[in-house]
Structure to design on (370 residues):
DNA sequence: CAGAAGTTTCAGAAATTACTGAAAGTTTAT
DNA sequence: ATAAACTTTCAGTAATTTCTGAAACTTCTG
């Protein structure tokens, strides 16, 4: 499993970016390597290619599986386990969004719901609660929205994206076509 | 600047979540405090309320300003500098998206563009380049899309979000209404 | 201009996070 | 049941990130 210069650059970059995407350097590198390699690749090969310990590789693969970005692939006749991407690029991107939503939004939603249950103790708290409520609603919208996008599936999502600034025009159109439904507040 | 229990819980939580949102614990806490406090608040008050050093506060505020989430507010007659949120919740959320896009997507786009310029050295590289190209196109779509959403502004964005699963139906509708324009590929 | 009131910087300390490698665990084959 | 081939775990170490606080800087005020 010798990495070509192109693959090396890409893998290193995904390592650097990894931490910004929610995982650490080696996890990012492992992911890139698995995605860019057409053949299934073994844990040992990963360790060798990236010069990291076997233990680290094992942990990294575990994490990537928990993100559902990578899956095992059993090669008949082989004892070792091999790894391949858990789907095409679109699927992987969706998984990243979904997992991040779980980690970045859901816990906050849950806390906000709790904090909004208590009656405000004073003026100051009432104001803060109002702000927290705004945040809650925003996060709820984002969540609903992102789930909606996932349900659309790649093709329609693509249509929508390609539509670009047409979306705004379409919305106006819609208000005329479907009056009364889903009204704006 | 005594924090009420409610505000304390919220501030602490935003601190914990901070790192997932792209900044560190104290930066998250400072942001929450500024947002939840109706009055402008001074750097010293922030240090006291959060029990962090004056230096750390200074750095945190600098970072929040670089994210354009917080701005200075000069109180006439006061020597000190006060801080307030740089806009309403919607604005802040947009800023976070935008900044994260800059940090999480743009650098990768740039690298991918470069890597795609070189001719592939062999079969393996050609395959990898194809994958990289898919990733590039996806990121490009996401970028275009998120910019589009920002241009829509809060109200329309809200309409769109409230529309929920209606979006799918609307897309079909659109194809009938505007045939030939923005065709699907 | 001296000094008071405030802010920023940055070297080093503290806290956190990631990595290694050896030991323990698992599975398959004989 | 033993051993070979492989994987996982985890205690300790290494690397990175964050925080402190003292010194340097900047503005205002008298």
């Amino acid at each position: 499993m010798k990495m070509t210069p192109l693959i090396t650059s890409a893998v290193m970059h995904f390592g650097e970016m990894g931490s910004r995407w929610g995982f650490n350097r080696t996890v990012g590198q492992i992911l890139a390597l698995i995605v860019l390699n057409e053949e299934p690749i073994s844990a040992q090969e990963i360790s060798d290619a990236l010069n990291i310990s076997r233990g680290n590789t094992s942990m990294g693969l575990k994490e990537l599986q928990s993100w559902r970005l990578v899956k095992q692939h059993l090669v008949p006749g082989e004892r070792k386990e091999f790894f391949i991407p858990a789907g095409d690029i679109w699927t992987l991107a969706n998984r990243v969004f979904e997992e991040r939503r779980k980690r970045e939004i859901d816990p906050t939603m849950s806390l906000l719901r709790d904090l909004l249950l208590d009656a405000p103790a004073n003026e100051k708290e009432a104001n803060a609660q109002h702000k927290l409520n705004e945040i809650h609603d925003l996060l709820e919208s984002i969540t609903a929205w992102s789930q909606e996008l996932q349900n659309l599936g790649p093709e329609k999502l693509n249509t929508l994206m390609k539509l670009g600034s047409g979306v705004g025009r379409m919305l106006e159109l819609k208000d005329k076509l479907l009056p009364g439904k889903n009204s704006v507040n």
User: Anything to note?
Assistant: Chain B is about 70% helix and 5% strand. Residues 43-44, 54-55, 58-59, 62, 79-81 of chain B lie near DNA strand C (CB under 10 Å from a C1'). Chain B touches chain A through 71 residues (CB under 8 Å).
